[in-house]
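Handout, section 3.2

Students often ask what a structure token actually looks like in practice. Rather than define it abstractly, here is a full record for PAS domain S-box-containing protein/diguanylate cyclase (GGDEF)-like protein. The first block is the sequence as you would receive it.
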Amino acid sequence: MVDPCEVAPRPPSPGTARTVAVHVGFACAYTLAVVVGRGTRLPGSTLALVWPAAAVAFVWLAQVWRDRRAVAAVTAAVAVLSGLLNTVTGTGPALGAVFGLANGAQAFVSCAVTHRLQTRAGTQPWRLRVPADLSALVVGSTAGAAAATCIGPLALLLLDGVPWTQSAGAWLLRNAASTFVFAALALRLGDRGLARTTPGPGRPEVLAAVVVVAAAYTVVFAQPQHLPVAFTLLPASMWIALRFRTTATAGHVLVVGVWVVTLTMAGRGPFSVGTPVTRVLLAQGFVTVVALASLVLALIRDDRLVLVAGLRRAQEESEAQAALLQTVFESTGDALSVFDARGTALLLNPAAAALFPYLAAGAPMERWSGQVQVRRPDGRPWETADLPVARALRGETVEPTDMLVRTAGAAEGLLSVGAHPLPASTGEHWAGGAVVAARDVTAERAAVARLAASERRFRAAFDTAPVGMMVVGLAGAEAAQILQVNATLCEFTGFAAWELLQLDVHALTHPDDRADCVSAFAPFLSGDVTQARQEKRYQHADGRTRWGLMSATMLTEAGWGGATGTGDEPYLLCLIEDVTARKAAERLLRHQALHDSLTGLPNRVLLRDRLTHALAAARREPAQVGVLFIDLDGFKAVNDAAGHAAGDELLQQVADRFSTCLRPEDTLARCGGDEFAVVCPDLVLSGRGQEETVLQAIADRLRECLATPFALTAGTYSVGASVGTTWARPVAGRDDADVAEAALAVADEAMYAAKRRGRVRPVPSRG
């Protein structure tokens, strides 16, 4: 099934509708022009004396000249319309068809020749702006009329017996004049890009011109006189051509042409002699002369005005450029001076006058060269013939060169001097003079030297610094990329310099800390942070963990004398101090502060901290925390019998045995001497009355692990243990640390009670 939307005709586009309307309008205008022209036939004749249709056909065809199909269609339309209208108005079918062919040929030839001549002359086609356009229009109109003359008059001879010479002359003049006069105005009116070349006369002059021209042409052509006074009208038409715009001149030619031909056909004016054909031919010839003279004069006037306007603009631009050049010459910071071929100073800008006070305009080289001493930067003298100005006077171009200059009463300064041969105004490369540009670079070169020395010092400090240093990019593709490292950083990380330059800064960080490193680096990228200091872990090339104190500062290339770039990109200078040994010492100190040095077990401080944390956990999730205090029985006897070394060895073995009897989450601590304590968090009670049973079971395991005698270096010995137990529970409104301390005291008291009862059975607290 076909969708009706697919076969429905599309409405014409606005451009298509406009094109159709234009062609319909031209067809109507052509029809009207043919009817008007056919109305000028003499009685008993088929030949019209005036043919405005030739101009309409010319303009119609010119509108579509770029489209070959449209050209063919319009040419055919002209031929068909002309043939039909001629037939209808009395020529007969045969003669009408021939006249149609002649008119179509005339339109095509006129347009082709005009377009060709305008294109060859380099002017824009279908315009009437310069004399070359007028020449193309006249030749094209004449060529088209000649083409039609070869067809129409021949048909009149063959079909009506009209002498060919008589009809050919009338046809040629009629069609050429009609095309030229009418088309000239049409081309001017259709030129939308036409610029006004004259301001135009005022209203009084316009009114005077209309009155004078109308009166003159009426007086000469409205009276039945035969005096040859038509030439007296030329001054009036020249007035129009010289004072009015070319479009107005073309309109004037058309109006007076119609007026002259009309009055002449009526038997009036100086051309009302002879036969009617002769009268009209004379009138058309007069109109052609007036049109040519007026339009040529107007277009030459326009061309001259355009040329004058162009020259005026060129003069204004030259003056503006000269003023600009003068401003640049006087305001530039460089000392500019101009010399003639003999080395005489011609021009100096203020900077040159200040830099060379001994150099004045008009001073020859012999005078000013003797007032200055010039040396090369290395101290060697500079010969006068080798000075930049002397070389430029010989036609050489001298690039800026440093030279030491000293004048009387002034300190020696370092100048950068360049010179160029003076170009000639004729376009030659060299006119014999020279232009010299100089500037004082003493301070600049000193600053560059200081900067270079500063950069060398920075490089030396960077490369030999006892701390690791690296430069990290912050912009574009270099963001987070390591750009420069020193030897200390290579030693700290275990990587070679070339290996580090392949990495980003995060790759050096310990894997567990990289996420934090990326987060800390982000504010540097956004510019929110410019400095940071942090202790962090780094991963050595061999897998070891190293600690470093990193200090990072954001700066630019100009601030650190870095590698390549514009000097505006931000960078990060990172100093990394190796603190691995300090961190290890700190860890050791912390361990020693919280652990027993003999057994390696937690001491009483760490035990109390673990018990405090267990109580805090019991507040969040109810659980039972048990505390046991242990005192070795028989330890003093071993110590007295075998010595303190044996006692220490016994304590170490007791610590090892106790550790095997406890859970990983339990804390075994040595509280001093032969006393130990245990914190058991998260104990599970199976029911009521199990509190003493659970702690007693733990105490029994501890005593049982002491049942086997201890093989010491000094011999085999046995010891027992007295154990005191208690439960530690959080107390509302009381600090967990205080509760922990109290629980340890209760367990300690229970342990002494056990000793007093026999040193074997554990004694639970009753608190």
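Discussion prompt for tutorial groups: Residues 1-12, 560-566, 760-767 have pLDDT under 50 and may be disordered. How would you have guessed this from the sequence alone?
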